[in-house]
Design brief:
The chain is an alpha+beta fold and about 180 residues long. About 20% of the residues lie in helices and about 20% in strands. It is built from 4 helices and 10 strands. It has a 6-stranded antiparallel β-sheet with strand order 5-10-6-7-8-9. Helix 2 packs across helix 4. The longest helix has 12 residues. The relative contact order is 0.18.
Amino acid sequence: MDVPSRGLFTGNRGILHTSDKVMGAALWKHRAWICCTLNWQNRRRDVMSGRNWTELFFLDEAVAMAAGHRPCAYCRRSHYNAFLDAWGENLKAPQMDAVLHNARAVHGARRLQTHKAEARDLPDGTFIKTDRAYLLSNGAAFPYAPTGYGAAKPRPTGLVCVLTAPPMIAVLRGGYTPHLHPSAG
């Protein structure tokens, strides 16, 4: 059974759960944080089954990018290629993953980095946080919820807290268009 709150994509950061299907203390086990399709060759598996990886779920690709995940080169090859083109350098996946990891993880802490930027300078697909998390798209800010975006609000002005890491913002500026949930308008 599909659960709408699982969103449109799944992600992988390694095995993050214990044998009794409880999330462990680790936020990642490797640097290849990828964003995968939910429906790959009609395969099905129970969440947190086995010890291969822990399924993470993302409303859409903008959420996955804000969480630090790039497109999977296996199940989303055309998106991976477009992402690589927008990156602007001819890098292999492990090289991109190293750059992304340095920009997303706070060394020695259980959290991701944020930074400040002028809202007007941020490309569509960027996530910011003011009173809550918002997706910037089409000149507006859409409030995020796990089940979809709320009604468009005016795009903030001035300095804002940015959740999307600088290398991901560069990819967005380079022309990569993330797949958005239909509720984003």
